[in-house]
TrEMBL record:
The lineage of its organism: Eukaryota, Viridiplantae, Streptophyta, Embryophyta, Tracheophyta. Residues 467-808 have a biased composition (Basic and acidic residues). Residues 265-278 have a biased composition (Low complexity). The keyword Secreted does not apply. This is Cupin type-1 domain-containing protein. Keywords: Signal. It comes from Papaver somniferum (Opium poppy).
């Protein structure tokens, strides 16, 4: 079944393996979790430095330790380095590489066992998935391609030293940067334990014990149970005696069998036979490594040596841009100033201690790059990006040895500034002199003074660099403290300003609130006055309407009364006329009766004349009395009407006076309200003017305070500048004293040298005189000796003068 479905199951296993490793690979998680990213600690540094103590621990047992660090060069990104240390008789369990692994053996002895998962890219392993192993020792370098399965074990002798391996992981497959997400490697037990039992049973042809037969080649079910349920071992374990024997016989246990089953791709009988040969160890292949200590150095002199290897020198580095180098500096020596035009260096100090100086290119300073000096010791890691000039120096009391990896090594050729191999020697001296703005003779003296190259003698250079580093650190610390003080002072002033602003803001808010409250009260009062005015106007309109109605009613009443009076007068007049008519009729009747009586009894006229006259007189008197009564009645009625009219007029006048008094009171109230509103408006205006006056006073106080602070800052800055000037003058005086002291020492050394030469000449002359006294040698011999001596003195004087001139060129203070 497995033979017939091999392509399907192989693809399923590969894809499942990738998915499982993305989720469950503990070593990947631990590598990503515990690997310390040094580059993230300081964003201002374009090149980085990590001490041994800053490494992150991935795994640690009594049989070994795995630590790592992620470090950046500020140019090509970050690099993942691991440091594997194995005690004797220890085993680093098999892992699957997700990236290319380039390593260097720092100490110890190890045997590597490697499997390939197949594929044409792994050209260093044959196409039949044969087992390969390499025996390595101190100084060996090698590379495992991504996709390789490997493990390693230290020497079986407990008296041997520990195995220490320095490795860097890079991804050569740029089109599929899978390792950037899933880490450097994962353990092989994750290849099996991540699958479900059904998949494993089908893949490995597992059957129950009751279904097994003697001729059946299936795997017992308890084997699979033991594999899947066993506890996960640590990354580094101790080798037992049984394990040692099996390794010595190159036999693989059942775990290796499972790995082989995963690796095998063939499904025919030839593949099976090939797998049998593989498991029997008959087709193993031993691969050779390259040892840095056994290679002839690229450069060597009394001050040290250096060697660099690329893919042209090491077949294992084929298809890789990584290179390996090692530099050994003796006591008091220096790797001359140089830069890499195409490669970045990731270096590890393997012995001793020293100083590293790295400078930024001119354009890099504008982007925040910072010149650096740092001290390194054994185990420290540092990086230098391309185009950054650098120099490595050893102390007078200890040598400095460091190895490392460089990128794009096949096209990189370091460029040195000084010595015989100086890049300046390839340039036209006139153009070079114009670049430095110095005469041509100065450049000739500068380039001709150094006869050595690459690795130079530099006594006390590391110590002086360390002193400068300490001084710079102290100066930076002082500047940082000054900046902190300024920040604290600025922060304090800012807090005071904020507190003052808050106080002013609160005062302003209170004033605004008070003004708003007053405005609100004025508005409410104005609205209340407006409402009262509207009510008054409405009441006045209503009162006017009522008064007009009353006046109209009074006018109607008066008209009605006048009409009634007129009617009454008319009726009275009619009654009077009727009475007068009746009286006239009565008088006429009486006159007629009297006439009749006169006609009837003329005779009684005379007798009755007196009676008649008397009666007429009485009638006249009665008529007069009646008329007087009527006239009195009319006068009384007229007087009553007049009195009523007068009373009505007086009532109207009193009502009018009362209304006038009310109107006057209302006018006085309105006037008082208007005057009150005017007083309130005047009060609000006065309050506003007072607030504006206070604001102007506060603004003037603030301006005065700002001017005072400005004057204080100016005085403080002047004081600091004065102190800085004094410090610079003091430093200049110290430098001048040191220079003078150095010149005195050089002058004394020169006088001592001249005195020695004088004594040598005296001895030589004494010897020549002795030879002349003895008769040995002729005049020609003495002349030749004198010429040689004079030439030697001239050469020494010329060298002495040239050295002094060179020192003046290199140090303008001299």
């Amino acid at each position: 079944m497995l033979r017939n479905s091999s392509p399907f199951w192989f693809a399923l296993l590969i894809w499942s393996f990738l998915a499982i490793n993305l989720c469950t690979s503990s070593n990947v998680i631990s590598a990503l979790k515990f690997s310390k990213d040094v580059s993230s600690s300081d964003h201002d540094r374009r090149f980085h430095f990590a001490t041994k103590e800053e490494r992150g621990t991935i795994a640690e047992t009594e049989d070994g330790v795995i630590s790592s660090v992620r470090i950046s060069d500020g140019f090509n990104g970050t690099y993942h380095l691991q440091f594997i240390t194995l005690e004797p008789n220890s085993l680093f369990l098999p892992v699957l590489l997700h990236a290319d692994m380039v390593f260097y053996v720092h100490s110890g002895f190890v045997v590597y066992f490697i499997w390939s998962l197949g594929g044409g890219s792994m050209r260093w392993i044959d196409e039949e998935n044969k087992k390969n192993h390499i025996d390595v020792e101190k100084g060996d370098i090698y590379r495992f391609p991504s996709g390789s399965v490997f493990y390693m074990r230290s020497n079986l002798e407990s008296t041997r030293e520990k195995l220490r391996v320095y490795s860097i992981f890079t991804d050569s497959n740029i089109e599929n940067p899978q390792s950037l997400y899933i880490g450097a490697y994962s353990t092989i037990n994750d290849l099996v334990r991540g699958f479900e039992n059904k998949v494993l049973q089908t893949a490995f042809n597992v059957r129950g014990s009751d279904s097994l037969s003697k001729r059946d080649s299936t795997v017992p079910e308890e084997v699979l149970d033991e594999i899947t349920k066993a506890s996960k071992p640590p990354a580094i374990v101790h080798l037992t005696t049984t394990t040692k024997d099996k390794h010595s016989e190159d036999e693989l246990d059942w775990r290796s069998g499972i790995i082989e089953s995963l690796v095998k791709r063939g499904s025919n009988s030839s593949s099976s036979s090939s797998g049998d040969d593989y498991s029997n160890g008959k087709k193993k292949k031993k691969t050779k490594t390259v040892n840095l200590f056994k290679r002839k150095p690229d450069f060597s002199n009394c001050n040290g040596w250096s060697v660099a290897l690329t893919n042209k020198d090491v077949s294992a580095l084929k298809d890789s841009d990584m290179g390996i180098f090692m530099v050994n500096l003796t006591k008091g020596s220096m790797m001359g100033p140089h830069w890499n035009p195409r490669a970045s260096e990731i270096a590890i100090v393997t012995h001793g201690q020293g100083m590293i100086t790295v400078f930024c290119p001119s354009n890099a300073n504008e982007s925040g790059c910072k010149n650096m000096r740092f001290k390194v010791k054994e185990g420290d890691v540092f990086t230098v990006p391309r185009f950054h000039p650098m120099a490595q120096m050893a102390y007078n009391n200890d040598s400095l040895v460091f190895m490392g990896f460089n990128t794009n090594a096949r096209q990189n050729h370091p460029q040195f500034l000084a010595g015989k191999s100086s890049v300046f020697r390839t340039l036209n001296k006139d153009i070079l002199a114009m670049s430095f703005n110095v005469p041509n003779t100065r450049m000739e003296q500068l380039l001709g003074s150094q006869v050595e190259s690459i690795i130079l003698e530099c006594v006390s250079c590391a110590e002086e660099e360390e002193d400068r580093m300490r001084e710079e650190e102290q100066r930076e610390r002082r500047e940082e403290e000054a900046r902190e003080r300024k920040k604290e002072e600025a922060k304090r002033r800012e807090e005071e300003e904020k507190a003052r602003e808050r106080q002013e803001e609160e005062e302003r808010k209170r004033e605004e609130e008070e003004t708003r409250r007053r405005r609100e009260e004025a508005r409410r009062e104005e609205e209340e006055a407006k409402r009262r005015e509207e009510e008054r106007q409405a009441e006045e309109a209503r009162r006017k309407e009522e008064q007009q109605r009353k006046q109209e009613e009074e006018a109607k009443r008066r008209q009605e009364e006048a009409r009634r009076e007129e009617e009454e007068a008319k009726r009275e007049e009619e009654k009077r006329q009727e009475r007068e008519r009746k009286q006239r009729e009565e008088q006429e009747r009486q006159e007629k009766e009297a006439q009749q009586q006169e006609e009837e009894a003329q005779r009684r006229r005379e007798a009755e004349e007196a009676q008649r006259r008397q009666q007429e007189e009485e009638a006249r008197r009665a008529e007069k009395a009646r008329r007087r009564q009527e006239e009195e009645a009319r006068r009384e009625e007229t007087a009553a009407r007049r009195r009523q009219k007068e009373e009505a007029r007086r009532a109207e006048e009193e009502e009018a006076q009362r209304q006038e008094r009310q109107e006057e009171a209302e006018s006085r109230r309105k006037e008082e309200e208007r005057q009150q509103r005017e007083r309130e408006i005047e009060e609000a205006k006065r309050t506003k003017e007072e607030r504006q006056q206070r604001e102007r006073e506060i603004e003037e106080a603030k301006r005065a305070e700002e001017e005072r602070q400005q004057r204080e800052r100016g005085r403080e800055e002047a004081r600091q500048e004065r102190q800085q000037t004094e410090r610079e003058e003091e430093e200049a005086r110290r430098a001048e004293v040191a220079r003078q002291q150095k010149e005195i020492e050089m002058e004394e050394a020169k006088r001592a040298e001249q005195e020695r030469q004088r004594r040598e000449r005296e001895r030589e002359e004494a010897r020549q005189e002795e030879e002349e006294r003895r008769g040995g040698g002729g005049e020609e011999t003495r002349r030749v000796l004198r010429e040689r001596e004079e030439a030697r003195q001239e050469e020494e004087e010329r060298r002495g003068g040239g050295g002094e001139e060179t020192r003046r060129v290199l140090n303008p203070r001299i």
